[in-house]
Structures
1.
Amino acid sequence: MNTPFLQVMLAVIAKDFRAELRSRELIGTMLMFAVLSILVFSFALELDRIARQEAVSGVLWVTLVFASILGLNRSMSMERENASIEALLLAPVSRAALFAGKFIGNFVFTLIIGLFLLPLMTVLYNMPLVSGWMFVVMAGGIFGFASTGTLLAAMTVQTRAREALLPIALLPVALPLLLSAVKASTAIISDAAFDTWATWLQIIIVVDIVYTVVALLGFGFVVEE
Amino acid sequence: MSDSSPNIIEVRNLAKTYDVLPVLKPLDLDIPRGQFVALLGPNGSGKTTLLRLIAGLIKPTAGTIRIGGWQIPQETEAIRAQIGMVSHKPLLYDNLTARENLRFFARLYHLPPQDIPPRIDLLLKRVGLFKRAETLVRTFSRGMLQRLSIARALLHDPHVLLFDEPHTGLDRDAMTILDNLLLEAHQEGHTIIMTTHHLESAAQLAERAVIIYRGSIACDTPTSPDLPRTYANVTGGIV
């Protein structure tokens, strides 16, 4: 009989968090990239307030996406080093539970970066980025991106060109999610009425559900032969 | 599922092909409970593939494997709880301590929470790593990693232990410690299948040697001090 889903998921999450607290490899890399990216864009857009207002949500999401890709690659590489993933696959556990554990870890790590970026960008770009709705849109966008990313990272980590392959595979798949997140974020920053951008949030939620279900079902096929 | 067969492992017409390359040609193999079998053969002969098929890590192209009455590939999930595997790679996490690694895998194998700490202590003492329990695995030597891997494989007290070239990269002392651990596991009644290139260790530890050559079982014989000569005859001296 398989070990209960929740027990496996929590064990994987706890393992990833413990390893990360000790090494800070994942968060450290993501944070360094994110801060540098935000700073570079901040200097580039410094003099043009209108351009800054129009570009800020794009800057936020491009930064989050590439920081997330760095984290996804590192997270799955950890399972490939020492062939640890084989030990996971040898255990009597559901592959979906392994996926859920890895995915939630990746989601939380990227969300931490996002939560750090919002106040930082508010200061650097002089824009009102910290709000409840912004948090909802950010969490929704990262959720879908992390679920697809975890699945595709499990696939690409088995190849030699994994660092290059993951963004190439992931970005086209995540495009509907990114477009919706950018549109919704821009509307929130512009203080637009909820009705005018609610559709984008609905798309994010639907895409999140579809991607996560597909990833849950597909993870076993990806990690096994 | 109950199983009255004296054989814990029954392999029938098992074949494995990668793309069009046949790595294992259809073969049969019965392994009685508690037997220590050495799988020998040159590189690329198919012994690791056979081990990975038995572990359920890869799927057969044809044929069946029954372990304790359960059948691969149909009932692989039930079989996983009966198998422990040690590879030449440690299958451990560098940034966790020895104890944390074992605790993580104990949870994956659904050991009762109250049994986990004493079981981990017992196994760490047995493999001689109790004093290093709180040390990060990334600081371990190759021999220590291999001993911790054995502790990981024994956590859930599996019926079948699979060792894939466990002697790789070990010095003489570490090999002696490993061999003693293998003997202990065998004396406890575990069925053991070990692939190795160390014919001396195979002759000393195992009761039976199965030599795989070019994807087929070329020789299946009780071990004896003559094993290196038998091996050379079967493989034409290729190690």
2.
Amino acid sequence: MSDIAIELRGIDKSFGLVHANKNINLTVRKGTIHGIIGENGAGKSTLMSILYGFYQADSGDIVVDGNKVTIKDPNAAIASGIGMVHQHFMLVENFTVLENVMLGAEDSQILNTSISKARVELKRLEKEYALEVNPDALIEELPVGLQQRVEILKALYRKADILILDEPTGVLTPPEADHLFRILGQLKDQGKTIIFITHKLREIMAITDEVSVMRRGEMVATRHTKETSVEELAELMVGRRVLLRVEKGAANPGEVKFAVENLTVRDGRGVTMVDNVSFNLRAGEIVGIAGVAGNGQSELLEAISGIRKAVGGTVLLNGKPIDVTGHVDPRELRDRGLAHVPEDRHHVGLVLKFEEAENGILGYHHDKRYLNGVFLNTKAIQADAEEKIKKYDIRPPNPRLKTANFSGGNQQKIVLAREMERGPDVLIIGQPTRGVDVGAIEFIHKRIIEMRDQGKAVLLVSVELDEIRALSDRIIVMFAGRVVGERDPDATEGELGLLMAGVEGRKDAAE
Amino acid sequence: MSNPYAKLPGWAEYGLIPLVNLVVAFLVAGLVVLLVGENPLEAAYHMINGAFGRGEYIGFTLYYATTFIFTGLSVAVAFHAGLFNIGSEGQAYIGGIGVALACLWLDKTMPWFVVFPLAIVGSAAFGALWAFLPGWLQAKRGSHVVITTIMFNFIASSLMVYLLTRVLKPLGSMAPQTRTFEAGGQLPKLDWLMSIFGLDLGNSPFNVSFLLAILAAFGVWVLIWRTKLGYEMRTMGHSPSSARYAGIGEARITVIVMMISGGLAGLMALNPIMGEQYRMQLDFVQGAGFVGIAVALMGRSHPAGIIPAAILFGMLYQGGAEIAFEMPAISRDMIVIIQGLVILFAGALENMFRPAIGRAFASIGRRSAVAAQTRGA
């Protein structure tokens, strides 16, 4: 037995002309937490997909526990003792915890015997790793943190010695994330090996023993976490020095530009997603809405930008009401000075099959500037796109290129350029840097602050608490569709975290 | 990384891949001919010769192609907005009413060039009307156009039986058809166009509606890629959620697009009614609406692809008839099999050879990149 759990030797993988993994070498020691960090598209997910058998490497070897193995599908990976906790959980919502855990690993054709065996085994695992969860609870009734625990139990049930966690904290509140880190620590102490994939530098520093950095399909460095710093890792990820803090002056708020009162929104199933929410935005300030994904932020954004009908409440834009409960035309809101950078640029903010220039007019295609009667003025559209490409440093600088071929950061810049360059009074931004590389984050943050300094009212919704804290002049926290608190940007992370977790009041914070 | 297919150069994407699919379709068709106990090469000869061997044959091929261009464009326009109009068949059928009314009204008193524009407007209007109802039902009630347009094909069929046996049939006639039109209801043939190439049209019904089809193809290109409406259609077709975000009214676009689609299908009626039979007969559409689906698929919903795809299907129709005539062991059903194979390989299995071709390109690309590097060093 060696003390090396997994060794990857010269892994190479191409998708057509895209070279996703270039000659990757990686050594993961047994009983350690090994972080893998890199920007979106750096090849982390591809590498893990190869390790878990979703893809086959074009060349290279995988050595598990000293033995060379071929992993042709996830079953082979499980047989080799590798388990995976996916970013998006692979759970059957209307099954119980127990049913989910044994799904695909049933002992016999007769369900009853399998269930009772699985129950015993699950109890043992729960006790051994302190992963309590009610085996008879339905998945859909569990909070995300517990659902993730079920995913981990699933892997342990299949006797995994090596656990791969892909961006596990994206859906968690800070307290839930802390809890996860404690669990991972225990698993490590029990001798399990953990591969932890993330793009958050802070998490790497907090829990890993070693960290490997990927950039553009290559493994650029491996460091002992103790011997490196956030700055060094960021530089390795991006390939140049980056500013991690945004510099901004004090806000100079003016009159109220946008007021939301008692807004209530229900989703398609009739579940109340936004519950009696009120807030306002003043000119020259950034208001951040913090909260764990799925607590009504998306529905709030959709309702105030005219995409989704609200069931109650009023919204005033520049002092005049918007008919949020009746018919709202997003076009009319744009004309009245509201710009919206949606959370989901792939399905909402952009049409990925369009050329860059075509996306540059989405929503503003009624503007006479871009038209000759009923015809598109292709020259004007092109010229407009070229101007924005220059100003926002969009790369590659080709307005005829299909939008899908731009990187996440550049796609986001396309949306931002379109919405910001109209000079709106109110700018609503959802997840400005989701899936955006570190280099572009800096640029995007600067632009948002510039908008504020020009006297625009900015509403910022983000699940990245760091981002909210860095940019906002006021922070509103949403939990379960309600506004549970408003804080200054210098509120501590712990305080905000408790609010995000729905734990109200200071006495809990003291614990 | 989300896209497992490599990006290919344009000529491979739009030329090589369809060609490979087509060749495979014909190879499999050849096997079927072998199975029947006939010589596939002989069948291929009759197919090609029957479609292009003589001026007259070419005339027939292009006559069929004209019909398929209209229905192909009809399906393609709806595709661009994300709507699957299976009702081109019925819309073309109802479009015939517009043609017949214009002809029956004016054919004795007016020359063809007066009747033709009226017939164009009439056919488009009736076709559009027939597509308006499913479009409106989709927009307002959420009834899926795939279902409603199929049902409207049956309604159209029953309606036409009624009209052609009770209303439009001349008294005393026993055939379910209108009277034969006089000179004003007959479109001139395109002899002059063929004679430029030194070909003789013979008896074939190749007529001016072909030029209208080409014009319509250009019009569709302008509509889709050069107008605001086309931009809104494409936005909705690619991403309905983006369309909602951009304030593009889904209901409005759905109704308008279905009407344009139906109008184009309606234009198809001009070709057989004014161009060949000079009367409206029962079942004159003969499945052209459904062939239009295949044509649109194969032509990638682009007019520049639809025209060659329509000519290909015109060839299959005309050349296929010739095979059935020359080789009695091969029945007309055989032609349906060949068409089916073309649709299968060019439409449904369109991506079957793409990974292989992509890999081939990738390895060539990598080799030349390596070669360039070694030269550089």
3.
Amino acid sequence: MSAVADTHAQEHHHGPAKGISRWLLTTNHKDIGSMYLMFSFAMFLLGGSMAMVIRAELFQPGLQIVEPEFFNQMTTMHGLIMVFGAVMPAFVGLANWMLPLMIGAPDMALPRMNNWSFWLLPCAFLILVSTLFMQGGAPNFGWTFYAPLSTTYGPPSTTFFIFAVHIMGVSSIMGAINVIATILNMRAPGMTLMKMPLFVWTWLITAFLLIAVMPVLAGVVTMMLMDIHFGTSFFDASGGGDPVLFQHVFWFFGHPEVYIMILPAFGAISHIVAAFSRKPLFGYASMVYAVGAIAVLSFLVWAHHMFTVGMPIAGQLFFMYATLLIAVPTGVKVFNWVTTMFRGSLSFEAPMLFAVAFIILFTIGGFSGLMLAIAPADFQYHDTYFVVAHFHYVLVPGAIFGIFASAYFWLPKWTGHMYDETLAKTHFWLSFVGMNLAFFPMHFLGLAGMPRRIPDYALQFTDFNMISSIGAFMFGVTQLLFLFIVVKCARGGEKAAAKPWDGAEGLEWTVPSPAPYHTFSTPPEVK
Amino acid sequence: MRVHAKRAVALAAGLLLPVTVMANWTMNMSPGVTSTSNQIYSLHMTILWICVAIGVVVFGVMFWSIFAHRKSRGFKPANFHENTVVEVLWTIVPLAILVAMAIPATTTLIEMYDTTESDVDIKITGYQWRWQYEYIDDDFSFFSNMSTPKDQIRNRQAKGENYLLEVDNPLVIPVGKKVRFLLTANDVIHSWWVPEFGVKKDAIPGFINETWTRVDVPGTYRGQCTELCGKDHGFMPVVVKAVPEEEYNVWVAEQKEAAETERRLTEKDWTLEELMERGEQAYATACASCHQADGTGLPPAFPALKGSQMALEDMAGHIEIVVNGSPGTAMQAFGNQLSEVDLAAVITYERNAWGNNTGEMVTPKEIFDYKNQQ
């Protein structure tokens, strides 16, 4: 507890600054973590409201609410904002808050860079969102922005989109460098690599993925910029370029990106399942190896997004086999979680509810992923709503439920108060039902032949689309309840103990709740 | 109360009636009408059942824990956290399942890739937003545009049975013959899909992709473009008519003759009225989706033609941009897409419609000469 005593002695000099400068100039990992989380939630609501527009248009066949041009802008912006604005910053926020607390470090290794990498994000998204108001509208070529639709045929705002992606990339790379520097240099004495909490492990691996692929994304958008403004023909067939090259480069970024959005959630879920099972995590070492294996394999499977582009059959087979292989380490993780629960002493507070739903629904997303990996069958699934169902099953109950579970798990630590358990359970059940209602029928739509990214559809798809829209509205509205719960919890409520969950393990529970502004000024000893 | 209950039932029934009457709850992939689509369907069902079986086991254990091993029931936690045998087993067994799955998938894939020994070759070109079918061996080609009326899309008219899945000129293929498709695109990437055939392939500018099908059951089969290709991506259906061979041969002969007649039309002397009439139709299929039916366009990507300097004054520039397109923009080269007659008609129409009354006309012969000069 010496860390805490120190903090009290120094609080007078080193407490948070007053007013706006506390937030603008802060180098404190907790403040920056909070800002990342608030920013990502704002983006979640913005991206979500675009999804509401999409679902409202698709509620019935025919064009009634928006024009096809605007519909395409909505699908594009929804994807970009959710991926780069909601999910990724939320995990960086969790990393900022929890990594130093979990490894017994006083702060992140590079605090000023930390401030800078956060403040770049609002700038990037201001640019991106401003394209909605430009002549010709926002980017309308899908979040995958395939050339030449995004180059020769893109709207004038494409240049601003490219600039925004560059800034986001810089922010992510700096965040990743910071995470790696912190984890490798600032662990408490005695905390060897194989004693690190899993959330730390998964973030370490995620950070390496980010450093490896964000420059590739920067590269591909730069090539687009050159094609648009400087007369090159990287992706323009009439100038000797290759539109398929775009897809190879994009998915070389895009597939590891998928794991960037899920690996930190794997880590957090491992803590939560163990805590509410009151039993140590089953197979810690195999969990670490599985995450490592998934990360390595994620670089070898990119072209399974491109089975219909006309690759040679050897390439087709290689990417099919490599993709199937990923099921093995992913399976290991699911089996470990289930075995952790087996013969535990389970209780179901909100974090555990979200975690259990995560395991079940992420596994369903994994199953449809396995089906998509079968190349011949993918010729039928590709670019239909089956794919939309698949990636929403891994991203919504995967990444997003993982973030909700983490938020409820650590909210007592952040605010010093317990959240309202009844409201949180209501949030869970409404989200759970809404999400399944929204996304499960999409499997049927895809199998019945509905292509993705269309503003209007043939009559046989009407019923499931209606159900899906109702579920989506329900899920969307429910998220306002989460905002209410968090605000309520921050403003007051039952006092939280230093360790509010009796089964929880880890250094973060040794500091008081709320965590003081400065923690672990003297490193703790890990045995 | 009773009255209320009755009313509620009546209301609920009233609300549900249209749903139950129209209901179409297709939940699964169709086995289709080709050997490829049947093989894909059986792969799909196999992997689906494997997933269901794994799911039953994994979720079974999980739900057992959720019900039996609760703290609220006073269950005391065990303390195990490792078991090498179990961990090796649940690595090896999934691996074995995957290998078993990969074998039939590989066989099917090899068959799908065998485009040799075809009986009919058809080149398919994707345009924003229609398909062109070119019968390479028989030297004729045509465009296939969606034929669903705007009024149905805008909810001003009841939607037809094949809403959004109907075209003016379907692709016609003979039953029982191996048909090879050569796919490419003129502007952006499109993707040609007929679910009942199990055929989906991207049409990519600058590339020629190959795929094939052999349909055994005559009928009309419908699909859609499946690669986002711009604003009317949702409105470029694929319709294929598979007909018996004799019928196919008759149809091919007719098409060849029609193509010959079309070529002869270039020689004819056209009046302004005739060109305007034909131009209006050609404009509606080739130009209106971007420049709009009233010529006002969708600036900045698609400029207005109504009152534009080019349509009112610069005739040479007008012909050039329609025939050769404008590189680096969405304006395509229509020189090879439309016949000389249609090119002349469209240009004439654009110079005289919507109050652009220049009174000038461009004849098919002028277009023919212009193209030959190049």
